[in-house]
Every structure is written in C-alpha cells, then in structure tokens.
Design goal:
Length: 99
C-alpha cells in the first residue's frame, strides 16, 4: 500500500477539495469574462453586471455554471439589432416618454 492509496491521504485530499472548490469557482467567474470576451464585450459585461447584479445574484448563487455558459449568448443578444430596435441603442438610458 503506497502513500497514494492511504485512507488518511484520501481524506485530506477530499477535505481540501471541499474547502477550495468555492474559491476556484469564484476565481473562474472573475477571470472568465476577461479571458473570453473582447474589449467591447467586456465593457458591456461590466455595465450589465453592475446594473443587473441583484437580478443575477440568485442565479449566480444557485448555478454559477449556468451564468458562465450563457454569458456569450447574453452579450450577443445585447449587441443584436433586435435588442437595439426594441430597447434603443443604449439600453441603460431610458427613452423619452411617448406623447
């Protein structure tokens, strides 16, 4: 029986995984947008995350991988012509009321 097969070592490794897994998720979510998005998309992501923080807080707490998997789709939808025609060029400035 080698050190690798030791029950004590396996318990220590399992405990470390349980401890550091949430930290790895947090690190992944903080670095993922910077790595995967270009400058324009990153700027849009920062605006979106600041404005919609409360909305997405529950989603991030429940399923962080859902947010990571659908991030590109959210950014693409925000930059689409359909979104711009429906909500205006800048979605963070409310349009004037209709008369």
């Amino acid at each position: 029986m080698g050190l690798k097969d030791s029950k004590k070592v396996k318990r220590i490794l399992a405990k470390c995984r349980k401890t550091f897994f949430p930290l790895n998720i947090h690190l992944f979510l903080s670095l993922y947008p910077k790595i995967m998005l270009n400058k324009k998309e990153l700027r849009q992501f920062k605006l979106m995350s600041n404005d919609l923080e409360e909305t997405y807080k529950n989603v991030l707490l429940d399923s962080p991988f859902f947010f990571a998997k659908t991030l590109k789709a959210h950014i693409a939808w925000l930059n689409s012509s359909e979104f711009k025609s429906k909500y205006g060029e800048n979605p963070y400035i409310t349009p004037p009321p209709h008369k």
